[in-house]
Amino acid sequence: MEPRQSRNPMGRLLRTYGRDHWHALALGLLASLVARVADLMPPLLLGLAVDTVLLDERAFDLPGVPTAWLPATPATQFVLVGGLVALSFLTSSVFHLLRGRALNRFAQRVQHDLRVDSYDRLQRLDSAFFDSRQTGELMSILSNDVNNLEQFLNGGVDGASRLGVMVGGIVVILLVLDASLALVALAPVPFVAYFTYRYVGIYQPTYTAVRESLADLYSRLENNLGGVRIIKTSTAETYERDRVARASWDYFEKNWAAIRISTTFFPSLRVIAGVGFVLTFLAGGLWVLQGSVAGVAGSLTVGTFVTFIFLTQTLVWPVSEFGEIINLYQRAKASARRIFDLADTQAAVRDADDAEPLQVTHGTVEYDGVSFGYGRGTVLRDVDVTVPGGTTLGIVGPTGAGKSTVVELLVRMYDPDSGAVRIDGQDLRTVTLDSLRSAVGYVSQDPFLFYGTVRENIAYARPDASEREVEDAARRANAHEFVRNLPDGYDTLVGERGVKLSGGQRQRISIARAVLADPDVFVFDEATSAVDTETELLIQQSIADLTAERTTVVIAHRLSTVRHADTIVVLDDGRVVERGTHEELLARDGLYANLWAVQAGQIDDLPPEFVARVRGRAAEIRTDGDGDEGADESTDQ
Ligand SMILES: Nc1ncnc2c1ncn2[C@@H]1O[C@H](COP(=O)(O)OP(=O)(O)OP(=O)(O)O)[C@@H](O)[C@H]1O
């Protein structure tokens, strides 16, 4: 399931996401070229003015312009040069504006496409993937990594084009103006290149460590905010503050190590560039003054010297940015790799190439020799159960017996390790996931409500449903009454995770959602949290209403919920240990009869070996939870 590391992720980024916006990139690069060429003009014009107008060392000329067209007096020549400098600045400003807009647009559009696409791929991955990854880590990919790419596509691409044009342009100009002084001015460039190369080698691993510790910090924060109620009720604020502080300190240390390297690098680079500048200044100045330096002859006009001084100064910036561009590039490459690795992760549960839509005729559900484990150990062992179309199956059993796992396989959150789950004879692995999940309505133990109105939550699976349909569904789920009494009725906003509603209310909204979706097969996982007797009755009544017409699988913690089911299976440790109707199972006097007796409060009548077994289990659970590790993990949940 884990993908191979993406090779050449930056190439792939440009091919996959850059292609649609290439015109913005092309316009940005072109504008960058024109703007930078315009930036190079003023020093050249200044040199020309010094030599030809101020010092009158040679005749005034402009390359490519006939002499007859040029002004004759020094003052008008000077004004012309001034006008050309102004024109350069104007051109530079207009094209910098174009460059900024176009490159930013390119980066922002790629960022948008990439984020939406990555999220979409992520949400289609299977449950096993989400079991193994922390939400904070995934959030960090969708936010940080996508942002890193945007930074490179904007700042990095711009910096690289500036570097190319400025350095390339300056090198050519300097060589043409005076090859000897150009060699002096460019002497530091190989050092800068080597120094940067070394820097990247050292910085890269430290940056990877920074990113990993940031993902850990995000995971910790995300986990804690999700469990904030438990933190409060366990008065664990100080403990959690310390844990966040440890994760944050770790991030600080890793980041500080990276910052120390980068803050040393840039000033050091400036030292090299500064040495180059001073050498150029001295050599050029002495050549102008005395025609030779340390025995090396040179001839230079004052104007050329002035141009050199300006251009070498201009050279310092792009060259010292070289490291930063490499830095941005390295970060972006690592981010692109993580994003593409995520994109390449194949869900184990996905549509087969020849998957066909599920055809429901009777709605018969069949588990045929199903065994399954979540990786380690086996949770379901050789489960054989058939639910004829239109009938109700009740699943009961002690906690952890595997009841929820049975229905997770029915909505294909996972595939069985052996055996098959079928609906109307079609193996679920051969049908499309969309058709399966539209056919099976699932109300889970802890229903999730999205932030939004009650109406939006009920109409989640059918956003086009009319007001009347939504209300009908709510009526059938016994939710209409309480929804009407909410402050804004169906337009009441339910908070994140629907915290403003009680467990029983959330479950009824969730049932209404399933009613509206009108599935062929209905799966109901009864809430384990206690609801009052009235709510329990209301829920049971709406379930009974729904089950009358369709195949239903009900997981019951209160056995009264499944008392009237056509068949009840009793699961224990992943095996079906008993099956039959309520009366048949009571008559067997086995596990079901004992569980029934416990719920009816007739504990004294239970067989001693059952009581001993339950007590043994309780002791086991207590021993497991004793150590520090156990306590730690429980807060992690
Ligand atoms: N996503 C998962 N990853 C790993 N193990 C899991 C996962 N979900 C459940 N399990 C394990 O599988 C076993 C069966 O869990 P399951 O939730 O199916 O039991 P259950 O009978 O529904 O329990 P309860 O009555 O408490 O809801 C348990 O041991 C549980 O720890």
Concise structural overview:
The protein is built from 21 helices and 14 strands.
Q: If you had to describe this structure to a student in words, what would you say it looks like?
A:
The protein is about 65% helix and about 10% strand. The chain is α/β, with parallel strands linked by helices and about 625 residues long. It folds into three domains: about 10-345, ABC transporter transmembrane region fold; about 365-605, 3-Layer(aba) Sandwich (Rossmann fold), CATH 3.40.50; about 610-635, no CATH class. The strands form four sheets. The chain has a six-stranded mixed beta sheet with strand order 8-11-12-5-13-14, sandwiched between helices. Strands 4-3-6-7 form a four-stranded antiparallel beta sheet, covered by helices on one side. A two-stranded antiparallel sheet has the order 1-2. A hairpin with a 7-residue loop joins strand 3 and strand 4 (about 380-385). The protein is elongated. About 35% of the residues are buried. It binds adenosine-5'-triphosphate (ATP). Adenosine-5'-triphosphate binds near residues 374, 400, 403 and 404.
